[in-house]
Design goal:
Elements (H helix, E strand, L loop, with lengths): L2 H28 L10 H4 L2
């Protein structure tokens, strides 16, 4: 695998992870749920 192909694959993978995370965040916000960060920070802000 060339360096360019590896860079493009890495960029596509990171973009998919970010878009998936944004989709989950938006779905939670649309249903009046608090976004959960997994560390309990949002629970302490209530």
């Amino acid at each position: 695998m060339t360096t360019v192909k590896a860079a493009l694959l890495s960029f596509a993978m990171l973009s998919a992870i970010v878009l998936g995370g944004l989709g989950i965040y938006a779905a939670d916000a649309a249903n009046n749920h608090n976004a959960v960060d997994g560390y309990g920070v949002t629970a302490s802000l209530r």
